[in-house]
Amino acid sequence: MDVFKPIQLFADLITYQWLRITPLSYLGNGVNFFVYDVMKIGLLLIVINYMMAITRYYFPMERVRDILTKRRWFGLDYLFAALLGVVTPFCSCSSIPLFIGFVGAGIPLGVTSAFLIASPLVNESSLYLFPAMFGWKVTIIYNILGMAVAILGGMIIQKLGLEKYIKQDLLKFKSRRQVETENGGNSLSVKEQLKYFWTDGMNITKTVFPYVVLGVGAGALIHGFVPASFVEKYLSSKAWWAVPVATLLGAPLYANSVSVIPVMEAMVGKGVPLGTALSFMTAIVTVSIPESMILRKVMKWQLLALFFGITIAGIMLMGYIFNAIL
Q1: pTM for the whole thing?
Q2: Helix axes 274-286, 257-269, angle to 10 degrees
Q3: How confident is the model at residue 19 (pLDDT cuts 50, 70, 90)?
Q4: Of 70, 175, 179, 213, which sits most exposed with the smallest number of CB within 10 A?
Q5: How many domains is the chain partitioned into structurally?
Q6: Which residue range(s) make up the domain with 165?
């Protein structure tokens, strides 16, 4: 069941009936994409930030943070975060609200980064579309490699201690005790709690949402753009540089995996090596200009550059491995 289908139907109503834009046209696809993603990510921001405000209030997040940071979990915390990314049906931009919620709740940056990498990289599409298109062997190898990239990427970020490059206003959260102290030592009533949760969640939402609009707007301008002639002429090469070119070519673009996988299948059918085609697809769904614009409000440029660098390096490594073994 597609939980976002009502939003898509409303986006279709606005685009094709209210604005009377021709369906399947470049303008129609771009406007529809913009309306849909702005509404979807905006609602996710509101809901997730509200739920995280409740979590911060009721749960001892300082203790949770200390447990995840100081105890030796042998990578299980990164594995759980990556698995959460697999089961959440979000694209790269849509997973950012949950990433913000995790960081604001005090979850270690490396663990949340593993989620942010895995969410678009290994998803429901790679699980149920890949077997039919490329077989179980490719599906299993891709998902294992994708999980490994997410986990290792998260571990590297955590090891480097980059929390100082997260915007500090996202790390300032109040425990229940602090809120009640400010209230004269009295517990908040149910009505006061609901108001507090809404205010706390909306403060982060209002800070990030303008960047969501800018990011999705950039994505709408390039949505559906696939340089077919370039792909056919250059990416079919088996030279070493084909994988980096495919990755860097796909990185600025923005689409979800469902819409990109058929493109990748067509590329393979035209003679593009599978690893090269996977690099192109994976870069589109994992790193993009819209995602970088939204994350720039969350991260300082040093962390943003490292995050994208690790992710792109992992994508290229996956491409080389597939070209070497298949």
Answers
A1: 0.73
A2: 160
A3: very high
A4: 70
A5: 1
A6: 5-325
